[in-house]
Amino acid sequence: MSDTEKRSDAEHRRAVREAVENAGRSLLSTVVWTVLAALGALVGLQSLQIAFYGVGTATVGFAAFGVVVTAASAYLLYDLHWA
Questions:
Q1: Rounded CA separation 44/75 (Å)
Q2: Which segments of the chain have a pLDDT < 50?
């Protein structure tokens, strides 16, 4: 007899309940991180826009910040959905 044939109905229900909870938690986590990455990309693009219209040495900082944040957000989205 295999291990699965020896389990009771309560043990099977508990295993299924745990799997469903883990799947729901994983889906919720993916949604939250996707929203945060999208908002981060918008912040990075806004920083690039400020750098484009700005004058002075602060524009370099805004541009660098914008590039780093946008790239990090794009990588996070790639890692969440396509990797």
A1: 13
A2: 1
Would you say the C-alpha torsion 27, 33, 36, 41 has a positive or negative sign?
Answer: negative
- Given this model, what pLDDT does residue 2 score? 60
- Tell whether 2 is covered by a domain: no
* 3-class DSSP state of 19: helix
Count: domains in the chain: 1
Range of the domain at 55: 7-81
Residue 14 lies in a domain: yes
SS3 readout for 20-78: HHHHHHHHHHHHHHHHHHHHHHHHHHHHHHHHHHCCCCHHHHHHHHHHHHHHHHHHHHH
H/E segment holding residue 9:
helix 9-53
1 falls within a domain:
no
